[in-house]
Amino acid sequence: MTQDERLDCMLRYLLDERDETRGLALPADPGEKRRLWRSLVNVRPPELIDGDYLRTEDTYLQEELRRKGVTRLDGLTPVQPGLYLWQGDITTLAADAIVNAANSRMLGCFVPCHGCIDNAIHTAAGVRLRLECTRMMALAPGEEPPGQARITNAHNLPCKYVLHTVGPIIYGAVTPKDRALLASCYRSCLDLAARHGCRSVAFCCISTGEFHFPGELAAQIAIQTVRAWQRQNPDRIEVIFNVFKDSDREIYRRLLR
């Protein structure tokens, strides 16, 4: 089965799940097909799903990852001992764990094709990740408070685990509590990763972007917190600061000199 055929199978299954979309014609354009599939996956509630769909999705996503290419830690050069700076797609990074800047529901982003990292990670991992997050949250119902971390398997991502953390949302001026909560996100992720035997963790820019934490200050807190943790836990975990935007790369590059 080709990638296009797999995509058609997945689309037909997802469309036929709902009365309002059953029988709709599939787009002819491959890009539109991909966008429709992502939208349907993004909005799909964490309900039971057919095993054949999951196996098709696994094969499809693994082939997509192969085409994009995987970045491994041994191919990167540290900027300081135990610290790396890498600009790229975190869903292609083969660290032991990557960090997801989650929302308080901890089930992924439900906005179709949204540009946040939560959406990107759940899309690339596949439906299995939302199902696992649902089981995880059922053990402690309610919204996840900021500053903590939870861990799941990575499913179709090249890493082993995903660390989910909720950062503080900034509504006005950054407060001391906001700073403390952001620092706690980094410490909680590292503590949790260490307990699961991880030797490398890739952090996204937690709380920036949609959560409006100023990028420069967020990077300062990230670097200070990670360095302090590494001093207290020498030779335990190497850390990759993953950035997507050029402006964040320049901030981290300057601060890590």
UniProtKB/TrEMBL annotation:
Domain Macro: 70-257
Alphabetized Pfam families for the sequence: Macro (PF01661)
Coiled-coil ranges (or none): none
Keyword presence, Magnesium: no
InterPro entries: Macro_dom, Macro_dom-like
Gene Ontology molecular function: any one: hydrolase activity
Classification via PROSITE patterns: MACRO
The entry's keywords: Hydrolase
Domain of life: Bacteria
SMART domains in alphabetical order: A1pp
UniProt protein name: Protein-ADP-ribose hydrolase
